[in-house]
Design goal:
The protein has one domain. A 3-stranded antiparallel beta sheet has the order 1-2-3. The two termini are 35 Å apart. The chain contains 13 helices and 3 strands, in the order βββααααααααααααα.
């Protein structure tokens, strides 16, 4: 509340300061003023708590093929009542913590790859990263711009439904990739052994998949690892390539979103730092968990819940 008056005098033996709101002509005691300040402090503290919760959620879900941006958006919109457009920008901001964790985890590998790229001594990984990043940008940027314009005009139920459908698609894609990878089918037919090297065509296909994953609900790791598995790449190598290609992709998305974030720097810092710490601490555990568990069912079930909830919201 804004006070347009000023402190005028002290009353009686209790020495209670009073304030006057000259617009509404209401008198507030010192106790009431302290109450409003405490309420304001509670609201501010809740912003930090929300940022901490979202950072933890981002840090855990980023390494799982469940679309961390989709999960963060659903939480922001439905739990914290954040508008869809702002929730989308905030979900992308969370990836700064993930990016920091990736850079730390792959600091030696990425430095080596970057030096080879700059000196044009390209080998398999450098060629893959160049073409996959190029096609991620060519596909992802138009989708990003279109979604940013559309989401501002959509209500909560429609966005929930969109994310729900996208999660279901992610689940079906993961299920298909685990069941019938192209490389395995070719091995069974005796056509060739397991794919040892990814081609430029493979890089383009995976880059397109990553570009589409700019949409919330489409898992970036699920789309890229799934595409690589379908192309016959071994899972260990597919996971490594997926994480490496995430570094330039996330960097580009953050560059586009920095001007759209209007949160206080301190609140954003809490979210990013918590996402970084949790991402770093849970990376190895979540990767092992992703290998053992079938997250296609999680995506399909959670997507169905979001879709049903949105339909109920429209009907009610």
């Amino acid at each position: 509340m804004k006070f347009t008056g000023s402190k005028i005098k002290h009353f009686g033996s209790e020495n209670i300061s009073t304030f006057i709101d000259s617009k509404n002509l209401k008198i507030f005691t010192h106790e009431n003023f302290i109450m409003y300040i405490s309420l304001l402090k509670f609201v501010i503290d809740m912003d930090y708590i929300q940022a901490l919760i979202m950072g933890i959620l981002q840090g855990i879900t980023e390494w799982l093929p469940v679309s961390s941006s989709g999960q963060v958006m659903l939480a922001l919109m439905n739990v914290f009542s954040i508008p869809p457009e702002k929730a989308y920008s905030y979900a992308l901001l969370m990836h700064l913590g993930t990016l920091m964790a990736l850079l730390f985890k792959f600091r030696y590998e990425f430095s080596r790859i970057l030096m080879k790229l700059l000196t044009f001594r390209w080998e398999e990984e450098e060629t893959f990263l160049f073409y996959s990043t190029l096609f991620t940008a060519l596909v992802g940027f138009p989708i990003y711009k279109a979604f940013k314009e559309i989401v501002s005009s959509l209500n909560l139920e429609v966005v929930n439904a969109f994310i729900g459908v996208a999660l279901i698609i992610t689940g079906l894609m993961i299920k298909k990739a685990k069941e019938t990878p192209i490389g395995h089918m070719e091995i069974n037919k005796g056509l060739k052994s397991s794919k040892e090297e990814v081609s430029i065509v493979d890089a383009i296909i995976v880059g397109v998949a990553q570009g589409v994953a700019v949409l919330p609900g489409i898992s970036r790791s699920g789309a890229t690892i799934g595409a690589l598995l379908l192309l016959g790449v071994k899972q260990e190598k597919a996971v490594r390539l997926s994480f490496l290609m995430a570094i330039p992709a996330i960097s580009g998305a953050l560059f586009l979103e920095l001007t759209a974030i209007d949160e206080p720097v301190s609140v954003s810092a809490v979210a990013v730092v918590s996402a970084f710490i949790v991402s770093l601490l849970t990376l190895e555990v979540m990767l092992k968990l992703a290998e053992r568990l079938n997250f296609s069912k999680f995506c399909i079930v959670f997507g169905s819940i979001a879709l049903i909830a949105s339909l109920l919201g429209v009907l009610v």
